[in-house]
Structure formats: structure tokens, C-alpha cells
Amino acid sequence: MERTKILVTGGAGYIGSHAVVELYEAGFQPVIVDNFSNSQESALTGIETILGVKVPFHRIDCNDVEAMRAVFAEEGSLRGVIHFAAYKAVGESVQKPLEYYHNNVGSLLTLVQVMREFGVEALVFSSSCTVYGIPDALPVTEQTPTKKANSPYGATKQMCEDILNDVAVAPGNKLRTILLRYFNPVGAHASAQIGELPLGVPNNLVPFITQTAAGLRQELTVYGDDYDTPDGSCVRDYVHVVDLAKAHVVAVQRLLDGKGATVETFNVGTGQGNTVLEVIRTFEQVSGQKLAYHVGPRRAGDVPAIYADVTKSVAELGFKTTATLAEALQSSWKWQQHLQAING
């Protein structure tokens, strides 16, 4: 039986590569678009090693409308798109706001235009819990008001959501969209063939932890221990990347089955928060490595605490995470050890 084709923009990235694997294993035919601005070609090798097949790949920038048209024309019969391609570092977005607006908002506009031209009507959009800003109450539900974003990165995700909601109510619209608001993805595939692969100094906590444990970084900085949280460090909802990838498969199937409203929003998290210091302690337990770290000043753009209410995604999307924080961190360490082994 012929597989249903799903275009995956940013499919060589951290979350994208795991989603490609889960899509294929669920019976879909993923097609990857990536320009390696924030990923590496080795992810394609990892995907092929896991699946035992080469996944179709196009090296292009999603802001390039002619290149995107060429992909849609060449592939034909695309039934849906998962749009991951975006810059994603909160701190960097404060330094480079223009680049973030151009890439993140521009690529969505280009994609939706080309989808309309080719009659592709199902879109899963990679959003973020940053759209909630600094919430008044926790946990956050999908009805929690979005507030002024704490960073240009968060603002681009809010804008993209606004664009997709506006498109949904326009006359003659046929696009159906699911907005997945991710909390903090961590971990790696159990095979240790794909995982988070930051270019240069990591912006995210867990790769900084694993690189410090591996001796690639001298020590880890905890940005602030004076927040109003259980131990003073920031609280986040850490979701295993494989669980997150599976949420995309469920979302794609929901769109193709014609279920739900024209635009739907779902939180994807575990439903509980962990502090940065808890993550460090848990990593030390599962890895047997003692981490060198110090407490530094607060970081611009950081929200003190946020974690998800997942009632809606469990009830309506039929999705629930299964992996624990310890399992996620263990897989991250296994991935780091794999990188050490192949890079020496």
C-alpha cells in the first residue's frame, strides 16, 4: 500500500528528525526539507540507520518560494505538512531580532502560500509555551491568555499563531491547522543515532549538561537561584523528544481524518515542572557523573516558571507522554557518549 506523504520542514533538526522516524514507523512517508542552518547532515544518516531506508530530502530554505514550489511539484500527492523550520534560541533572538522575524514568520508565510497553490490542506505547526509569556497562574492551559512575549523568539511564535488563526476565518479557506505548543524537549532516540546536536555553544540546558559531563565544557551555569520557585532556579516542563514526536503523528492523523475544528491548539508537555537544579541532580543520578556548575545572574528572556496542563491534549488529541525525566536524561547521556565515540 502506498504511504501517505507528509512534508517535514526542518526535518533534519532535533525534533524534526525524531518526528520523521515516528511518522515512518506509523506508516507515513515523510519528505524532509532542511537547509542545515541549525542542523547537520549526520541526522539524515541517523534516520537512515534507524529506519533502514533513505527518506526523501531537499536541501532548501523555506523562505525561498520558488524552491518550495519545486519541492511540492516534484513530490506531488503531499497530504500534509509539519512545519518545524525556525530559529529557536530565546537568548539569541534578543541579540538578533530581525533574523528571527524574517526566518520564523517569513518561512510560514511562504509555506502557507505554496500549500494553497498546491491544494495541501493539513498543517501541524511547531509552536511553543513561550507564547504564554510570564503566566499569572500555573499550570497553563490552552485558554491561558497569551501575554507580551518575553523574547523576539516568543513573539515570532505568537505572530505565526495569529497568522494561522486569521487564515482560518478568511473566506474560502481550506487549510486545517493544529498548533502544538511544546514545553521543553529533552532526550534522544533510544538507538542513540539521533539527538540534540547544537551548533557551537548549546542554548539549551540538557546538551550543556551532557557536554559538561563529557568534559567538553568546563562547567555549567545555572542562570539565577533567586526565583520564587522551590529551590530558586527556573521551573520547566521537560518532555521526552520521542513523546513529542509521537504527538505530531497523532496530530497529522487527526487532520487527515477531518476531526476537530479548523484550527486547534494543544499543549504538549508532561503536566509537571522540574527546577534546573532538580534536572542537574537527576542527571547525576542516572549518569553517575558529578557535574561542575555555578550559579550566575538571571538571563534575559527567561520566564521564572512554566509547565503544562495537559488535560485537553489527553482528552481531545488522545495523547499522553510516557517517558520520565530520568529516562529522558539517560537517553541524552547515551547520545552524548555516542557522539564522543564517533568524534573521538
TrEMBL record:
Enzyme Commission code: 5.1.3.2
NAD-dependent epimerase/dehydratase domain span: 6-269
Gene Ontology BP, a term: galactose metabolic process
Keyword set includes NAD: yes
Keyword Transmembrane helix among UniProt keywords: no
Gene3D superfamilies reported in the protein's UniProt record: NAD(P)-binding Rossmann-like Domain (3.40.50.720), UDP-galactose 4-epimerase, domain 1 (3.90.25.10)
Cofactor(s) essential for the protein: NAD(+)
Top-level taxon of the source organism: Bacteria
Catalytic activity: UDP-alpha-D-glucose = UDP-alpha-D-galactose
An example Gene Ontology molecular-function term: UDP-glucose 4-epimerase activity
One GO CC term, this protein: cytosol
InterPro entries associated with the record: Epimerase_deHydtase, NAD(P)-bd_dom_sf, UDP_G4E
Family to which this protein belongs: Belongs to the NAD(P)-dependent epimerase/dehydratase family.
Assembly notes: Homodimer.
Protein name (Swiss-Prot/TrEMBL): UDP-glucose 4-epimerase
Biological source species: Hymenobacter sediminicola
Gene for this chain: galE
